[in-house]
Amino acid sequence: MLKAMAKDAGFLKHKRITNHSVRKLLVQKIRNANIPPTETMAITGHKNVQSITNYSNISVEQQQK
Question: What are the boundaries of the signal sequence (predicted)?
């Protein structure tokens, strides 16, 4: 199913898309939008803050703030 959705979305064929990579990208996008960790957890289904911290890489711009 994920493969079909990636194809429909126009993702490159050589790029590997997995549930894990999509979830990580989602967490990063949510965190970059300054959504609080508790809301991020509610959206992604994570059980604790540490688990979303492992996924997210804070941008240089956010680090400077």
Answer: none
Q: How far apart are CA 14 and CA 21, in angstroms?
A: 14
Q: Collapsing DSSP states into helix, strand and coil, what is residue 56?
A: coil
What the block records as the tokens of 54 is: 């492992």
Neighbours of 51 (CB within 10 A): 13
* 31-62 tens-digit pLDDT: 889 999 999 999 988 898 888 887 766 555 55
Q: How far apart are CA 20 and CA 27, in angstroms?
A: 11
Terminal C-alpha separation, the chain: 39
